[in-house]
Amino acid sequence: MRNETARKIAFLMLAVLLIFLISWMIGSADFFSTAVLAVIVGVFCWDIEEYFDLLKKENHQKNSEPINENSNVQHEKITAYVLNLARAKERWEFILPQVKALGIPYEKITAIDGKKLSEKSKKDIVDEVSYSRFFKMMPEAGTIGCSLSHEKAWRHFLDSDNEFALIFEDDVKFDPKELAEVIKSAIGNQALWDIIGLELNHYGYPQKIAKLSLDKFLVFYITNVKHSGAYFINRSAAKKMLEKFYPIKMPLDHYFTRSWEFGLRFCGVEPRIVEQKFGDSQIKCDEAKKFQDAKTLAVNVAYNMYTAFMQTAYNFLLYLSSRRRL
């Protein structure tokens, strides 16, 4: 049976979205793109309860587990995986002391250097048509290498007997004591999440669902957040994201925040505790070809609005179902 409350919320959000869309697009897009977006969002509204019911069924057993606030991070099956290019020795020296201070096992993952990929290799693993229309540009070599490096870390994680993985890019800075305390508490609240983004951009309108420390909270983000500099992940999330990884259609930090596509719970920690601090990005290493034709612009608008709506509706429903006493 369909959830009437969820349907009402979905259709209310649809109305707001379409009003915003029409007013925003006056004079900047044609009627066709507006109609396409309306159909896409309408389809999602019809199915949103099914997404939510599937998630509840999948997590029923996990959600019935008691919250264990006395978990010890040293005794859990957890490893930190640090992504580092072979040529980036200074970055390794920068992050290594921080990772060691966490007091958990760690492993260096030699990152994939996008600059060394052949054009044939890139074409074999990237859906260039979808990527260019979603983002109005071709993928940069560094962006492809970044995605492949995270995929490599997920596979190393699943090849182990670890239950959880902390994944770091090599340019992040954090307080090891503070992060260790948050990870310990997150494990005690593992029924609430599948991925915890620790280094994120954008505000996201965070909604608290559990207290992790004296002044840190586990949250759902109602709107867009991005970045993959550091995150905490369980085995279920790694498996599901690997299933749909190829062909690559978007940057990694866009891919793994689309939690509704995987039936996962993407959370964050507020106030945030990890920052990107070391030097310039190694991803933006070349000038990507960009597109401004009418078809690309229409698909890009539809993609962005559809993504925004799905993220907001899905995460808001998760928030309603996952609130904990703070």
How would you describe the overall organization of this protein?
By secondary structure, the protein is α/β, with parallel strands linked by helices. It folds into two domains: 4-58 and 299-308, no CATH class; 73-291, Alpha-Beta Complex (Spore Coat Polysaccharide Biosynthesis Protein SpsA, Chain A). Helices cover 48% and strands 15% of the residues. It contains eleven helices and ten strands. The protein has helices at 4-25, 31-58, 60-63, 89-101, 119-125, 128-135, 141-159, 176-188, 235-243, 252-255, 294-322, and strands spanning 78-84, 106-110, 164-169, 172-174, 195-197, 206-211, 217-221, 230-234, 266-270, 274-276. Strand 6 and strand 7 (217-221) form a beta hairpin.
Distance between the termini: 32 Å
* % residues in beta strands: 5-15%
The CATH topology of the largest domain comes to Spore Coat Polysaccharide Biosynthesis Protein SpsA, Chain A
Structural class, by secondary structure, is alpha/beta
Annotate the secondary structure layout.
Blueprint: H1 4-25, H2 31-58, H3 60-63, E1 78-84, H4 89-101, E2 106-110, H5 119-125, H6 128-135, H7 141-159, E3 164-169, E4 172-174, H8 176-188, E5 195-197, E6 206-211, E7 217-221, E8 230-234, H9 235-243, H10 252-255, E9 266-270, E10 274-276, H11 294-322
Parallel strand pairs: 1-2, 1-3, 5-9
Antiparallel strand pairs: 3-8, 4-10, 5-8, 6-7, 7-9
Helix pairs in contact: 1-2, 1-11, 2-11, 6-11, 7-9
